[in-house]
C-alpha cells in the first residue's frame, strides 16, 4: 500500500462578521497573517454592477460573467 502525502494548500481562513454599520464583512486571513475584507452585497445587484443585463436569473447572470 502506497500512502500519499497530504496536499499543502494556501491555508486561507475566512469568517463572516457583522459590522456596527449593519454591513456583513467577509474577512480572509492569509497564511502569512495578513487580513483582507470584502463587504457582502446582494448577488443579483453585484452581477448587474459587473455588467450583466437585467432580466436573467441570478445564476444565469453569474454564469455569463464567470465565463468572461
In words, what does this structure look like?
By secondary structure, the protein is an alpha+beta fold. Helix content is about 25%, strand content about 25%. It has one domain. The chain has two helices and three strands. Strands 1-2-3 form a three-stranded antiparallel sheet, with no helix packed on it. The longest helix is centred in the C-terminal third of the chain and has 10 residues. The radius of gyration is 18 Å and the shape is flat. The model has no long low-confidence stretch (mean pLDDT about 85).
Task: Kindly report the spatial arrangement of strands forming the biggest sheet.
Answer: 1-2-3
The overall strand count is: 3
The number of domains is: 1
- Give the DSSP E fraction (strand runs of 2 or more residues): 25-35%
SS-derived structural category: alpha+beta
Q: How much helix, percentage-wise, in residues?
A: 25-40%
- Note the main sheet: 3 strands, antiparallel
Give the end-to-end Cα distance, rounded to a whole number of Å: 44 Å
What is the string of helix and strand elements?
EEEHH
Number of helices: 2
Shape: flat
- Radius of gyration based on Cα positions: 18 Å
What is the residue-mean pLDDT, rounded to a whole number?
Answer: 83
Key traits:
alpha+beta; 68 residues
Structure in a nutshell:
By secondary structure, the chain is of the alpha+beta class. The chain has helices at 43-49, 58-67; strands at residues 13-18, 24-29, 35-39. Helices cover 25% and strands 25% of the residues.
